[in-house]
Amino acid sequence: MLRSNGQVLPEWVYFCVMHPLFREAAVAQMTGTGGLQRVPRDYVENFQIPLPPLEVQKEIVAEIEGYQKVINGARAVLDHYRPHIPIHPDWPKRNLGTLAENLDSRRVPITKGDRKEGPFPYYGASGIVDHVADFIFDEDILLISKDGANLLARSTPIAFSVSGKCWVNNHAHVLKFAHSATQKFVEVHLNSISIEEFVTGAAQPKLNQEALNRIPIPIPDDVATQQAIVAEIEAEQALVAANRELITRFEQKIQATLARIWGEEAACPVGEPA
After folding, report:
1. Which residues fall within 8 angstroms of residue 63, CB to CB, at 6 or more apart?
2. Side by side, which strands form the sheet with 172-177?
3. Full-model pTM
4. How far, in Å, CA of 157 to CA of 134, rounded?
5. What is the helix (H) or strand (E) element at residue 35, kind and residue range?
6. For the residues 190-198, what does the mean pLDDT come to?
């Protein structure tokens, strides 16, 4: 435990010991085995940190904490945003099997040992798992997980759109829609509802094709209405995605500030004055 002696802010000490200059050298100095490894006390006591006046420390700490608040806010948006379609009570419900053509029969199993590395994405139940030298599909399709464990846990989206040349393994259903708006509409709806009642099997729960076809989708018949709803959702998703860039930029700002704290002193050996 480190405690300030009044000449340094606790936050300043924290930022200094979280810097790679301290942490990387600390790891190299660790003694002990397994989970009992410790950083030697004399390493911590002799490690020299930059020590500007308290007022300067306060300014820099406030700067870093301001950046961190932006990062925390952006992460909260990413953690809590879920696209949602407000269902109108007048919309008809149509079984998923009537909205799309099922292309499952075109899938071709291929073992990992038989895959030849190439440029085409190889999709499984929750995304790209490999890249291979050939493709099966070259069109806009919607992949829906067959994996009951994933469907029940909702650890990843259960439906995701794919476009272009790709290979799809047997862990995902493949649907083709007449309109891209309908495909996106169904994708968002499936990712916002529970479909536990359609998952069968206790030991190895799955979403089979017959159950998939029976999933009811409340959807306006008018494609223009579908397009307007999808456009609104895509605009929201673009704003949410911008938060990822915001996080990256402000993390870089923090790193730049930490680098400014150390300056050329960062190159000084441990225990030697700058």
Report:
1. 257
2. 100-102, 172-177, 141-145, 159-162
3. 0.71
4. 26
5. none
6. 86
